[in-house]
Each structure stands twice: as structure tokens, then as C-alpha cells.
Structure to design on (178 residues):
């Protein structure tokens, strides 16, 4: 019987996929909007799980098929799940900075490797900085108000991204409580 069913929450599904891939020798990290969903307690809801390989690029087909997923275009879908799984190319980046250390969350269905809250905020700010995406700023605030983040690191990174004015917007919103 499949462990995947309609009531499975995003974090559990992501942990199951991550652990299954790991068992198949494929090391991945969850990035993107689904990390915001996890860290914001679904204040922002994503139905797209973006896993980026962190080791040598390997085929994911056997692991995904073992879980009951089928490939449609660039997405993997499961008939019992509303979530799509995708494997964007690596390396893991936030703006122009490479990320090599990740957070882990333990669930009953396995261990999930994902961006830390600080890198998640940076990832969302990158969308705000480079594409003027106001939703990216809102998502960064949603995570930053719920988790401890390294603001000094985000400031240094923002300087290297040449985005000081938008960083100040972020800090102002953060101090106002969102």
C-alpha cells in the first residue's frame, strides 16, 4: 500500500521523497515556495516541491516510481497527491550565492533536508530584488517573523546582490511586524 495519500501534508510528503531519494543514492535539498509553506505554517501555500540535487547528478526515476509518481513534462505527479515534484538543476543558489549547508527536519516519514530559515528568506528576497516580485518580500517577511534568522548575513548578502534599498524595505517591514 502506498504511503502517499490525499491527506499527507507537504512537509511529510517532502520528507518521504527526500528519504526515498537518499536511499537510492540521490542527495537533494528542498527549496523554493514549499520551504516558505513549511516555515510560515502555510501562511503561503505552495503545491510545487522543488528538490535540487546536492551531490553528483543521478537519475531520480527509480525512486520516484517506487513512490508511485509518474513523469509529465518536467513534473512528477501522483494520483493521490495535489503536490507536484520537480527537480530544477543545481547547484543550490540564493541570488549569486551558493548554499552548501542545509537544515533538516525529522518527520514520521523520514528526514527532510531543506534551506534554513535564513537561506529561505534570502531565496525569497532574491525574487524581490531581481524581479521586483512583491510576493517574494511578503514570503520573506512571513518566514522571518516566525523564525530566528541571521540578519547580519542577509545584510551582507543583500550588499553583494546590490540591493541595499530593497533590503532596507525588508528591514522596515520586519520591524513593523510584517
Amino acid at each position: 500500500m502506498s504511503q502517499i495519500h490525499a491527506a499527507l501534508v507537504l512537509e511529510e510528503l517532502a520528507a518521504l521523497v527526500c528519504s526515498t531519494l537518499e536511499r537510492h543514492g540521490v542527495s537533494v535539498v528542498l527549496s523554493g515556495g514549499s520551504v516558505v509553506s513549511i516555515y510560515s505554517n502555510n501562511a503561503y501555500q505552495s503545491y510545487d516541491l522543488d528538490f535540487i540535487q546536492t551531490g553528483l547528478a543521478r537519475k531520480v526515476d527509480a525512486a520516484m516510481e517506487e513512490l508511485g509518481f509518474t513523469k509529465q513534462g518536467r513534473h512528477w505527479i501522483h494520483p493521490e497527491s495535489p503536490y507536484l515534484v520537480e527537480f530544477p538543476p543545481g547547484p543550490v543558489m540564493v541570488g549569486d550565492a551558493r548554499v552548501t549547508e542545509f537544515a533538516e527536519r525529522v518527520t514520521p516519514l523520514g528526514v527532510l533536508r531543506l534551506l534554513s530559515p535564513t537561506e529561505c528568506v534570502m531565496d525569497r528576497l532574491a525574487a524581490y530584488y531581481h524581479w521586483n516580485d512583491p510576493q517574494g518580500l511578503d514570503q520573506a517577511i512571513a518566514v522571518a517573523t516566525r523564525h530566528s534568522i541571521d540578519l547580519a548575513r542577509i545584510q551582507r548578502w543583500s550588499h553583494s546582490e546590490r540591493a541595499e534599498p530593497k533590503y532596507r524595505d525588508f528591514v522596515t517591514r520586519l520591524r513593523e511586524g510584517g
